[in-house]
Amino acid sequence: MLSKMTIKSTLILLILTVSTSLFAQNQDFIIENGKYFNVNGTLFSGQYAEYVDGYKTSELTVENGLLSGSAMYFFPDGSTKEMGQFNNGKRNGEWLQYSATGDLSSVASFRNDQKHGKWVVWDQNGNKRFEMYYTDGVKVGIWKMWDADGNLTTKTF
Fold first, then answer.
1. Nearest one of 110, 148, 142 to 128, comparing CA atoms
2. Residue 109, Cβ neighbours under 10 Å: how many?
3. What is the pLDDT of residues 138-148, one digit of tens each?
4. What are the backbone angles phi and psi of residue 97, rounded to the nearest 5°?
5. Spatial distance between the Cα atoms of 137 and 33, rounded to a whole number of angstroms
6. 131: which strand partners?
7. Which of 3, 7, 45, 86 is 20 to 30 Å from 111 at the Cα level?
């Protein structure tokens, strides 16, 4: 039969191993000025998962030191918070955000890290609240906004 001391020592060792492993997953490279480097100084390429307090906060794709490809961010329960694409370190294309309950809360478009195209935002009840348009980060077109009662208002840029 195992002694209490042996069980306690084993548990402490297990906790230290797990916490060191989680910490190491965030420390396999260095992030400096938005670039990801291996510990030997070369540019990092590959998949990267970041953990905070034991839960995964993000899964990122890095190419030649820059975020490039798919990016996913998570709530503490593991459900998706946000997803989109990077290209050479800049947000590009459609980005989706979700509420903590799993409902789609916004759809946004980017080009070279600037707001570009149609954006739509829903409230916690699933009601569309905003429909907005951007061109290279500048507000354009007719923006549609709905109040809490569903009344449509517009503003032209």
1. 148
2. 19
3. 999 999 999 98
4. -120, 145
5. 23
6. 120, 144
7. 45
* Domain, as residue range, for 102: 4-156
Alpha-carbon distance of 2 to 23, in angstroms, equals: 30
In this structure, of 8-17, 103-112, 137-146, the range with the lowest mean pLDDT score is 8-17
Total tally of structural domains belonging to the chain: 1
Q: Which of 105, 99, 72 is nearest to 86 (CA)?
A: 72
pTM, whole model, 2 decimals?
A: 0.78
Q: Nearest 5°: CA angle at 148, between 147 and 151? A: 45
pLDDT digits (tens, 9 = 90+) for 72-107: 999 999 999 999 999 999 999 999 999 999 999 999
* C-alpha distance from residue 30 to each of 23, 44, 49, 89, 133 (Å): 13, 9, 14, 15, 37
Q: What is the DSSP letter of 3?
A: -
Q: What is the dihedral of CA 84, 89, 90, 93, to 10 degrees?
A: -30
DSSP state of 1: -
Residue type, 155: K
